[in-house]
Amino acid sequence: MLTRRAEITPYRTLDGSEIHELMHPDHHPVRRQSLALAVVAAGTATRPHRHREAEEIYHILAGRGRMTLGGEQFPVEEGDSVLIPPGTFHHIENVGAGPLRFLCSCSPAYRHEDTELLEISDFGHYTNAVALL
After folding, report:
1. Which of 35, 47, 52, 111 would be 23's cystine partner, CB 3.0–4.6 Å?
2. Res 124: pLDDT
3. Domains (range + CATH), the chain
4. Which of 106, 64, 114 is nearest to 85 (CA)?
């Protein structure tokens, strides 16, 4: 099965990133995972969130970012990969001049219903969790 990115209509996901769904069980014969190209514009960040069931891997293709994973923050750049365990609050900020582009692999496959959005307080702690069912 071949997917051509040029033929994919992107959408905005709950965390605010632009998503190009490359492989997903809703549209392809893949069963237990999904793969997407995510784009975060310069000077913006995804909304802090977690996935109750899905394990994610981000692989940075282009740009520079600052990843928040649980209570840890670290820089990411082209060639880096980040493992996001299920239930771990996270977000990524684009700190570069151009788009931050990364592959996002989810197992089980990404579902909006698995996403919980939250806020970051002035002290850098996650607060006001909002379950999206």
Report:
1. 35
2. 57
3. 9-131 (2.60.120.10)
4. 106
Distance CA 62, CA 65 (A): 10
**pTM, rounded to two decimals:** 0.88
Sign of the CA dihedral running 68, 64, 107, 110: positive
With helix as H, strand as E and coil as C, how does the chain read? Answer: CCCCHHHCCCEECCCCCEEEEEECCCCCCCCCCEEEEEEECCCCECCCEEECCCEEEEEEEECEEEEEECCEEEEEECCCEEEECCCCCEEEEECCCCCEEEEEEEECCCCHHHEEEEEECCCCCEEEEEECC
Low-confidence ranges of the chain (pLDDT < 50): 122-123, 128-133
Q: Read off the pLDDT of residues 95-128 as tens digits, 9 standing for 90 and up.
A: 999 999 999 999 999 998 999 998 765 445 555 4
